């Protein structure tokens, strides 16, 4: 499943809508996505949303759509 993650790159600052960033992860569950984010980033996670069907197709057509892979 593909998850859309909304986050702030800096945990020390107050979240602002204008600085929210997005990444996409491929994981089996939301819990696995959150574990990867905790392990490999220092982001302030705002929201993790599963994508499927028409919503996924819409996101795939966006120019910034790219699946993030952590090593």
Automatic annotation (TrEMBL):
InterPro entries: RpoY (IPR009907). It catalyses: RNA(n) + a ribonucleoside 5'-triphosphate = RNA(n+1) + diphosphate. Transmembrane segments: none annotated. Its EC number is 2.7.7.6. Pfam families: RpoY (PF07288). GO terms for cellular component: DNA-directed RNA polymerase complex. Gene3D superfamilies: RNAP, epsilon subunit-like. NCBIfam families: PRK13667.1. RNAP is composed of a core of 2 alpha, a beta and a beta' subunit. The core is associated with a delta subunit, and at least one of epsilon or omega. When a sigma factor is associated with the core the holoenzyme is formed, which can initiate transcription. Belongs to the RNA polymerase subunit epsilon family. A non-essential component of RNA polymerase (RNAP). This is DNA-directed RNA polymerase subunit epsilon. It comes from Acetilactobacillus jinshanensis. The lineage of its organism: Bacteria, Bacillati, Bacillota, Bacilli, Lactobacillales.
């Amino acid at each position: 499943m593909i998850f859309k993650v909304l986050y702030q790159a800096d945990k020390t600052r107050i979240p602002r809508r204008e600085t929210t960033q997005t990444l996409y992860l491929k994981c089996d569950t939301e819990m696995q996505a959150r574990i990867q984010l905790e392990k490999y980033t220092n982001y302030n996670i705002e929201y993790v949303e599963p994508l499927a069907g028409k919503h996924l197709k819409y996101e795939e057509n966006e120019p910034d759509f790219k699946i993030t892979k952590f090593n």
